[in-house]
Amino acid sequence: MTEVIQSKKCRECGGEKEENYCNSCASDTQSDLVVSVSEEITMRDALKGKIREGGMGEVKPHHEFSEKDVESGDPRLPDGVHISISVDRKNDKYHQVVIDKRTGDVLHAEDEPLSMHRSTKDKKDT
Ligand SMILES: [Zn+2]
User: Fold this and answer.
1) 49/35 same-domain check
2) Which of 1, 30, 38, 64 is the least buried, fewest Cβ under 10 Å from its Cβ?
3) Which pTM was predicted?
4) CA-to-CA distance for 112 and 66, rounded, in angstroms?
């Protein structure tokens, strides 16, 4: 079970609000969406997320993750593969798992400190 909590924050004062109108600023202000995800997401659909503590443009997301199903092009993998990637800057962790969708076998797994991980693959996401 995954719990996703979304709340809106005022970009000007950082206060929580529900509509564009901010009581603290007494005007309509820009909003930042704050998303908190608890528990790991195991949906078998393409999924992407970023978790940050603070406003967009101010703070880099400290945790990014993506889940996707891709065709491998490999005749031994007719159903394609499921790729799960987690980049946790806060805890300096990089985790990647590639699973054969037909058998559920783990084809490839990486679990290492993010500072040790240097791949060109994760650059296109930034
Ligand atoms: Zn405000």
Assistant:
1) no
2) 1
3) 0.52
4) 17
Mean pLDDT of 29-35: 87
pLDDT tens by residue, 9-18:
999 999 989 8
SS3 content of the chain, % helix, strand, coil (to 5): 5, 45, 50
Q: Is 56 found in the same domain as 23?
A: no
51 C-alpha to center of ligand 1: Å?
Answer: 22
- The domain of 111 spans 40-126
Spacing, Cα 54 to ligand 1 middle (Å): 14
Per-residue pLDDT tens for 61-99? 888 888 888 888 888 898 899 999 999 998 999 999 999
Question: What residues are neighbours of ligand 1 (ion), with CB under 5 Å?
Answer: 10, 12-13, 15, 22, 24-25
Q: How far is the CA of 17 from the centre of ligand 1 (A)?
A: 8
